Each structure stands twice: as C-alpha cells, then as structure tokens.
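Write out the bound-state structure for flavin-adenine dinucleotide.
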Amino acid sequence: MINTDICIIGAGPVGLFAVFEAGLLKMRCHLIDALPQIGGQLSEIYPHKPIYDIPGYPTVKAQELIDNQLKQIEPFHPTFTLGERVETLNKLEDGSFELISNEGTVIRSKVIVIAAGLGSFEPRKPAVQGLEDFEGKGVSYMVKNPESFRDQRVVLAGGGDSALDWTIFLADIAKEVTLIHRSDSFRGAPDSAQKVFNLANEGRIRLLLQSNLSSVHGNGRISKIGVTDKSKVESFIEADSLIPLFGLSPKLGPIADWGLNIDKSAIEVDTFDYSTNVDGIFAIGDINTYPGKLKLILCGYHEAALMAQSAFKYVFPDQKLSFKYTTVNGINEF
Ligand SMILES: Cc1cc2nc3c(=O)[nH]c(=O)nc-3n(C[C@H](O)[C@H](O)[C@H](O)COP(=O)(O)OP(=O)(O)OC[C@H]3O[C@@H](n4cnc5c(N)ncnc54)[C@H](O)[C@@H]3O)c2cc1C
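---
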C-alpha cells in the first residue's frame, strides 16, 4: 500500500506542476496515470509540436516541456504508478482517502487532486469477436514494458505513430514481428513509416498491408491470429502476443461516480481554491469547469498554485501557512 499526503490523479503538465507547488509547502505527492508514460496529452498526442503560450518560452516542444517539468520537481521526489487507472475512491473515517486502481494498487492519501484532463484514455478496440477474452492473455492495447515481448512472436495492428514506433522498437527485441494495416500508406510520421518499410524490405519484420485483423484463437492464451486480405481471404499467423494500436479515446470513467458535481463531463469547482463539492478533493486542469474556464496549460498551472495553499490545511492541520516567494525561500529538497 502507498501512503502519501496528496494523491494526484493524472500525470499531465498540470498534475506535474501541482507536485512543484505542493513540494514548496513540504507536501509529498504520489501520481497515478492510466497511460504507461508521464506527460498527459502532451506526450501522448503531440510530443513533437511546438507550444507558443507558455510564459518564458517563446516556443517549446510539448515533450521538452514535460521533461523540464520533471526536472523541476526532482527535489520533491514524487512517486508514480503508471499504466493503471483509478477505479474506486473511498473516504475513510479519519477524513483521508483510499484509492484503488484497476490493477488493485491501493493508495492512501490525505488529499486527492484530480488532474485527469479529458479523462482516462481508453484504447479503441477493433471489432474482432472474442478479442476481449484474451486481454491479459496475450492481448494488450498499450506497451507498458517492452522487455515482456523479448523473444516472442508479436503481431501489431494499426497505422498511426504508436503502431509504427512500437514495430520499430520491438523489431530489435521480439523473435518475430508482424504489422497488420488496412491501407498501404500510414497516418504516422513519414520517417517512421519509411523505417518500417525498410525493416520489411530487410526481412526483419513481416508487413501485411491492405489487411485486417479478423479473428483470434488460442486455448487460454492467444496462439493464432486470423488476417483477411483485400479479397477477404483469411490466413493465420502463429503468435504469442497481439497489440492492436488503434488510438485512444478519453473517457471520464469511474470519476463520474464519486459524488462530485459534474457538468458536461467536467468537475465543477470553486475558483477560490479549485476545491470540489467533496471536502479534501480538488480538481485542476482540463478536467474542471467554472465560468470563463479556458483549457490551457497555463491556466492549469495557476489552479495548481491556489489548490496547494488550501490542501496544506488538510495535510498539516496544526500549522499556520505563511506565503513565501521562491526567491526568498529557494527550493528545499525533501
Ligand atoms: C493537439 C493539441 C494541441 C494543444 N496545444 C496547446 C497549446 O498550444 N497551449 C496550451 O496551453 N494547451 C494546448 N493544448 C491543451 C493542453 O494539452 C491541455 O490543456 C493540457 O494537456 C491539460 O493538462 P492536464 O494535466 O490538465 O491534463 P492531461 O494532459 O489530459 O493529462 C491528464 C492525465 O490524466 C490521466 N487520467 C485521466 N483519468 C484517469 C484515471 N481515472 N486514472 C488514472 N489516470 C487518469 C490521463 O491518462 C492523462 O495522462 C493542446 C491540446 C491538443 C490535443
């Protein structure tokens, strides 16, 4: 079980900045994110795009901003649970909270900060009969630990950046890699597509274009995958793992059932400190709503700063908070 002062749901830019603001006030943070990597929308959707409206940066690439934010919070040693979605929230008798993830991880925390953006990104699943029966038994929709595919026969499906990037990466690790794609051109970055074509030409991967995933087979675990070509003829590939990568769509999911006031999939907050209607739970960043709300990173940063001032009262109820500039106090590691 993980014990912390503040549990932050969502490791996007706003959740990360909340660690900094909390850290200045000596509050420990644990972050949980449904994605296998840190960075929220910036790392998942547009890592290479330049952002122009972050104060102090005329331009910064989205992933670079996340990398810098991680450096900025290093002194406060946040801890992370990645690739797990928060499912259950329980309020305990002493006023603190218990969160339970879809994989059974339990986190106890004095304060909850929901920085869940547009909600948790759920994989788009292809309509293949029986696919869900093999989830966790050879079928996975994201790559959490590439090493787990070492020496396996892996089949990937999809035509976006994730499918291309993981095909390239796994070509060096897996025993055999097959990429299935319904078209003969890719949506993903042209240089990644070129690398995939090169790997296929060198015989290091099998590339099945104008083809669709059609069936899955196995006894308990996946062992064979059916693929149809453009003339709808089905052939079969022996495989240990199947990774369908057809993108992610955000869903508010279980957060909607926690007794919070919700308006059009966003959590209503008091702009005094971005607290929700449940004592001890705050919501910051894209997930919240209030009159005049703008879904901008810099607005989320402001919300994180105000939230931390109020969260302090829950973490240190006997202490008085006095406001200090970082130029006066510096950054004191703990
Ligand atoms: C293409 C694009 C371009 C953009 N350009 C700009 C720009 O130029 N300037 C700007 O200011 N903004 C821009 N934005 C908006 C900006 O990305 C968002 O405002 C910002 O990402 C919000 O940050 P966040 O931390 O609130 O949420 P997010 O970045 O969405 O992160 C939330 C995280 O919470 C996780 N999560 C959600 N629910 C759960 C759960 N139940 N359990 C565990 N984890 C969960 C998600 O997996 C996600 O990683 C752009 C957005 C897009 C899509």
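---
The chain has seven helices and 21 strands.
The longest strand covers residues 106-114.
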